[in-house]
Amino acid sequence: MIKKNKKPEKNEVRFIPIESIEMRADADGESRVVIGMAAPYEVQANLGYFKETFARGAFKTSIDEKRDVFALFHHDFKNVLGRTGAGTLTLSDRADGVFYELDMPETSIGNDLLVSIRRKDIGGVSVSWPYSTVKDEWNHTVDPPERRIIEAELIEMSITAIPAYTDTTLAKRSLELSRNESPAGHSASEERAGAGGMSLCL
Fold first, then answer.
1. What is the pLDDT of residues 137-193, one digit of tens each?
2. Beta bridge partners of 137
3. What are phi and psi of 168, to 5 degrees?
4. Would you kindly state where each structural domain of the chain is located, as residue ranges?
5. Does the pLDDT of residue 136 top 90, yes or no?
6. E-state strands within the chain
């Protein structure tokens, strides 16, 4: 059963460790446009408490409705790199995921990031969405449980070298809320994850 989470919560964050940040080549070799994948579809990640997959088109509504999505550095709104509302960030929903084109600003942080990207020091992207906007499916018949995100509102993507982890309490609560609707009991792996803590990364 697909459900939409109604209780307001914090934003969920996932780090995408894919080395697909590239510079668009141009005639003079001075391009400031950065391109890559922001979120892959149909790729399962083990988050400790559960496994998670973005269904194909999970962020399509945010893109089709031209919502104002930000590009940030390390999820910090003091470090805005671009936004769709200004035309400095372009997002496209494709069969295998969400792709972006970012026109890097001529600021100190923008210039520094370009150097780091060219040096391959930075090669990751994080995305975030409000927990309350998620429509998801849960499978509690497997161990660990599996979560499939059908739809979520993309609010920002960040270029980062360091994985940004979602609040572990929020992740555990999302599992508990789904279990309350489809009781399946606690699995051994969930107990182990709860005892040892969890890092959430994609």
1. 999 999 999 999 999 999 999 988 765 544 455 566 677 777 777 654 444 334 433
2. 148
3. -65, -30
4. 13-74+96-104+121-179
5. yes
6. 3-4, 11-16, 22-23, 33-40, 45-46, 51-54, 70-73, 76-83, 89-94, 97-103, 124-130, 135-139, 146-151, 156-160
